[in-house]
Amino acid sequence: MRPLLRLLGGAALAAASAAFAALPLAVDGQPLPSFAPMLAQVTPAVVNITVVERSPDANPLQRDPLFRPFFNRRERQEISAGSGVIVDAARGLVITNHHVVKDAQEIVVLLKDRRVVKAQFVGSDPGTDVALLRIPAENHCLTCSNEEPALH
Predict the structure, then answer these.
(1) Angle (CA) 121 80 98, round 5°
(2) Which of 25, 29, 38, 131 has the CB geometry, 3.0–4.6 Å to 98, for a possible disulfide?
(3) pTM for the complete prediction?
(4) What are the contacts of 4-9 at 24+ separation with CB within 8 A?
(5) Residue 121, exposed/middle/buried by CB under 10 A (0-12, 13-18, 19+)?
(6) Each residue of 45-83: pLDDT tens digit?
(7) Beta partners for 65?
(8) Superfamily for the 36-134 domain
């Protein structure tokens, strides 16, 4: 079974490579548009979000008052990650998912230029899984503009 999967996987990869290699660079003498200029403008708004949260007690006996004294209760912390988008650089507003930040004790945002800033939870809507964060608004070197970037 494994050799068959390898063979099928290799054939699919070869077919995909051939399909990409067959794409023309120009049609009727006109170069095909590139998304690269648009992506260069908008990717600084995409951020990485790291969340530190308190993890619940793993053993149900730790929650029982009768058995609690027999356990060495240390607060455990978990680190999770997600992504977000700066939607208003002037006010430092970042939109992300509610499930990423719902139990957060600390929220840290990594910007495209590798700067790390602490974020403040503003609010969220669990029903739509959307959350809003605020980061310090100064010195955001975003090149996003209100104009729609043209494809080149």
Answers:
(1) 40
(2) 131
(3) 0.64
(4) none
(5) middle
(6) 999 999 998 776 666 777 777 877 777 666 678 889 999
(7) none
(8) Trypsin-like serine proteases (2.40.10.10)
